[in-house]
């Protein structure tokens, strides 16, 4: 028999972090269902695992979001522009069924549309999603009946995306599945889920984050490339990944991710580029030529200035601000006392992209919700930000009601809408500020305080530093020795470490 000296001790199983034990808001909210989990409570014996609970709650909240759209489904989409805003139930989906040629059987990117919008102005994978939904929409009945069905079909497909997002967010941090309830219960998530098709890109991005957390760089890249083929914003995640892999010396994994992303994006886009280049390029020309629009600080400037900025100036300045934001994130990464977590930098980069953009549609909050949950799983800060986003959600619809109700002026005037925009900007900046504080003071980071390093970081989790702003250094010579970690992320060494095995 092997001696005790040569028999490895049993590895400790991962310990699930329970928010009701570390978060006062979560503990107070749990009183509605019996209070925080006790020390002697038996877990892991029920079919209702944390991930399943999160998914069912997310589906329930998604369903409530569908109910919130009921006034529009019953007629506000069709019988009055103002009423769909006063009920805050507007959606692009039914309007674009006929407006983008799906009702007439036109093929996106290949068939020209009547009117000013000559081609579909969405990325290819989103166009495919829209086209598949049109195939599943019954062609019988009047156009209003078909638009209702088209919205319902899309809602069902988007609900699948919401469930995928809930699963991926709950599983990205192995020891923190209950953090997924932040996403599942996010009011702005439920309110904006069926305004447009953004959930497709969000689901692919969440799946990519899950793959990276498991060390699967190529799969991460492929999913991120597909997400970029559905919406442009996922591309900016490669910036934070670059500086993190630079600091950790993980160049092989970074280039695998970039290669996978480029390959997936090309597979989706090249066929359309070759056979319908004009239609394919519409999304990019439309994004460039689009004027200053709702939700941006550019709109406040434009509507309060006798000499508003030109589109070229806004495009150039917004691009420069994104680059400066990336440089700031890079400097933060290389000077932080501990390498930032991937989710933290991903949230900051997407937030910078949103804050500097010339348009902020209310559904863009969906881009940030999963990243915010992973970056700062703290109920107080998350709910403060969500309150600001819900206020903006109501503000934009009441403002549109004001501008479309004629002399009645029912709704929110321009000055009030500017305050709603400012609230959205301040709420997002607040969440960015607490994430930056967590990076500069890692002891304040609730994820690391629980004993983890970077559970969403994949190969970055627990890796030694190879490069910091002061210059290249060898981790064995200059970098401080990192504590040994168990397989569940804690700082305590395994019982057999340091022995001859």
Automatic annotation (TrEMBL):
GO terms for cellular component: plasma membrane. It comes from the Bacteria. It is found in: Cell membrane. Residues 1-20, 472-501 are annotated as: Disordered. Coiled coil: none annotated. The chain crosses the membrane at residues 47-67, 149-169, 181-212, 218-245, 257-277, 313-336, 342-361, 382-402. The keyword Transmembrane applies. It is a multi-pass membrane protein. Its main location: membrane. GO terms for molecular function: hexosyltransferase activity. Keywords: Cell membrane, Membrane, Transferase, Transmembrane, Transmembrane helix. The keyword NAD does not apply. Residues 473-485 have a biased composition (Basic and acidic residues). Pfam families: GT87 (PF09594). Belongs to the glycosyltransferase 87 family. This is DUF2029 domain-containing protein. It comes from Streptomyces seoulensis.
């Amino acid at each position: 028999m092997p001696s005790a000296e040569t028999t490895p001790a049993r590895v400790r199983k991962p310990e699930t972090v329970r928010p009701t034990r570390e978060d006062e808001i979560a503990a107070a909210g749990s009183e509605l269902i019996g209070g925080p989990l006790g020390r002697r409570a038996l877990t892991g014996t029920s079919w209702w695992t944390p991930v399943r609970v999160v998914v069912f709650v997310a589906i329930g909240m998604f369903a409530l979001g569908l109910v919130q759209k009921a006034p529009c489904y019953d007629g506000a989409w069709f019988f009055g522009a103002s009423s769909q805003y006063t009920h805050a139930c507007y959606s692009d989906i039914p309007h674009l069924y006929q407006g983008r040629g799906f009702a007439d059987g036109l093929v996106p990117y290949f068939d020209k549309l009547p009117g000013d919008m000559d081609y579909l102005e969405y990325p290819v994978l989103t166009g495919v999603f829209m086209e598949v939904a049109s195939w599943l929409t019954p062609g019988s009945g009047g156009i209003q009946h078909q638009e209702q069905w088209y919205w319902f079909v899309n809602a069902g497909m988007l609900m699948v995306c919401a469930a995928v997002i809930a699963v991926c967010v709950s599983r990205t941090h192995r020891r923190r599945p209950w953090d997924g309830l932040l996403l599942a219960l996010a009011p702005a998530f439920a309110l904006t889920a069926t305004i447009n098709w953004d959930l497709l890109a969000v689901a692919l991005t969440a799946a990519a984050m899950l793959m990276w957390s498991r060390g699967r760089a190529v799969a991460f890249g492929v999913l991120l490339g597909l997400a970029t083929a559905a919406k442009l914003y996922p591309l900016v995640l490669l910036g934070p990944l670059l500086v993190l892999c630079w600091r950790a010396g993980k160049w092989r994994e970074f280039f695998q991710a970039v290669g996978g992303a480029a390959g997936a994006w090309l597979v989706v886009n090249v066929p359309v580029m070759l056979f319908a280049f004009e239609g394919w390029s519409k999304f990019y020309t439309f994004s460039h030529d689009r004027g200053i629009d709702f939700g941006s600080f550019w709109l406040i400037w434009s509507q309060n200035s006798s000499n508003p900025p030109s589109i070229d100036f806004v495009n150039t300045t917004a691009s420069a601000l994104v680059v400066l934001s990336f440089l700031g994130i890079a400097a933060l990464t290389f000077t932080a006392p501990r390498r930032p977590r991937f989710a933290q930098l991903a949230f900051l980069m997407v937030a910078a992209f949103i804050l500097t953009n010339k348009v902020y549609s209310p559904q863009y909050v969906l881009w940030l919700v999963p990243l915010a949950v992973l970056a700062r799983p703290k109920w107080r800060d998350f709910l403060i930000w969500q309150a600001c986003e819900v206020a903006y959600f109501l503000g934009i619809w009441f403002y549109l009601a004001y501008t479309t109700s004629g002399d009645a002026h029912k709704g929110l005037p321009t000055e009030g809408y500017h305050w709603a925009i400012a609230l959205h900007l301040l709420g997002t900046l607040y969440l960015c500020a607490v994430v930056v504080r967590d990076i500069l003071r890692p002891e304040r980071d609730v994820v690391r305080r629980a004993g983890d390093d970077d559970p969403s970081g994949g190969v970055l989790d627990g890796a030694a530093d190879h490069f910091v702003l002061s210059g290249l250094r060898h981790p064995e010579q200059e970098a401080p020795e990192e504590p040994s970690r168990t397989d569940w992320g804690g700082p305590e060494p395994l019982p057999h470490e340091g022995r001859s095995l």
